[in-house]
């Protein structure tokens, strides 16, 4: 989750826009975007007590940040940009989720993992737009004020994508999970294989719910 948060936040967006010449970000701004994450890596891995103490904060930040951002979104902008945001959400499900699933499957095949252990459910779970991505347009526009005129539209589009994937991702995960179970592929089989280094003598199946 910590590694994926680098992608969800403004850091990679700033690098991509800067490399493409679409924005001008000073070096200190890039450092400020990634430094808190690096400090979290050091603190969390250096102290188990600090990691346990700070872990609930990740879930607490999103509702407060989303409320503040939502209060600043013009409804007319959301209505006008909603269709594009929905398209972005569906594209995330298809392309991002599809790429993650194919990468996992290719990894299993390359490592010659037994068929019952080729679990790709984590890739399907990636077929979503993270809630904290809603704050990315504002963070980027704050660093480069020339982007402020499009910040509202971009935030509305990302918000629509978040809502779209929040509805579609659970159904997709449930469908793929049942599809795997019918073929004897379960997370428990995968975990048992990684822990013992051996193929389970009998596939560990899970009842459908």
From TrEMBL:
GO terms for molecular function: 2-keto-3-deoxygluconate:proton symporter activity. The chain crosses the membrane at residues 12-39, 60-78, 84-107, 119-143, 155-176. Coiled coil: none annotated. Keywords: Cell membrane, Membrane, Sugar transport, Symport, Transmembrane, Transmembrane helix, Transport. One of its GO terms (cellular component) is membrane. It comes from the Bacteria. InterPro entries: 2keto-3dGluconate_permease. Pfam families: KdgT. Belongs to the KdgT transporter family. This is 2-keto-3-deoxygluconate permease. It comes from Allosaccharopolyspora coralli.
């Amino acid at each position: 989750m910590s590694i994926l948060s680098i992608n969800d936040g403004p850091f990679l967006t700033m690098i991509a826009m800067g490399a493409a010449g679409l924005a001008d970000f000073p070096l200190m701004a890039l450092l400020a975007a990634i430094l808190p994450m690096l400090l979290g890596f050091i603190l969390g891995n250096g102290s188990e007590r600090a990691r346990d103490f700070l872990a609930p904060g990740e879930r607490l930040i999103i509702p407060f940040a989303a409320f503040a951002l939502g209060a600043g979104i013009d409804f007319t902008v959301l209505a006008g940009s909603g269709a594009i945001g929905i398209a972005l959400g569906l594209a995330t499900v298809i392309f991002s989720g599809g790429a993650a699933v194919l990468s996992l499957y290719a990894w299993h095949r390359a490592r010659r993992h037994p068929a019952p252990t080729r679990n790709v459910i984590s890739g399907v779970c990636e077929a979503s737009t993270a809630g904290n991505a809603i704050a990315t347009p504002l963070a980027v526009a704050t660093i480069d004020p020339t982007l402020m005129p499009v910040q509202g539209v971009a935030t509305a589009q990302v918000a629509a994508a978040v809502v779209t994937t929040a509805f579609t991702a659970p159904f997709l995960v449930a469908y793929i999970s049942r599809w795997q179970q019918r073929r004897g592929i379960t997370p428990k089989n995968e975990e048992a294989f990684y822990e013992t280094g051996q193929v389970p003598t009998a596939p560990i199946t899970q009842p459908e719910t």
